[in-house]
């Protein structure tokens, strides 16, 4: 599950700032757009309980 917001893959070379879009390509330069954010928290994560338990043991 990923965010629908995408960012131009060539924004560092082509733009002075990141260009965000909902389409598959940049509206300004036509380059491919890539996912701009990591997947959000998934409450149905089957390994979440184990990951949290391991984190508590490390603290």
TrEMBL record:
It holds the Pfam family Nop10p. GO terms for molecular function: snoRNA binding. GO terms for cellular component: ribonucleoprotein complex. SUPFAM superfamilies: Nop10-like SnoRNP. GO terms for biological process: pseudouridine synthesis; rRNA processing. Keywords: Ribonucleoprotein, Ribosome biogenesis, rRNA processing. Residues 31-59 are annotated as: Disordered. Belongs to the NOP10 family. Involved in ribosome biogenesis; more specifically in 18S rRNA pseudouridylation and in cleavage of pre-rRNA. HAMAP family: Nop10. This is Ribosome biogenesis protein Nop10.
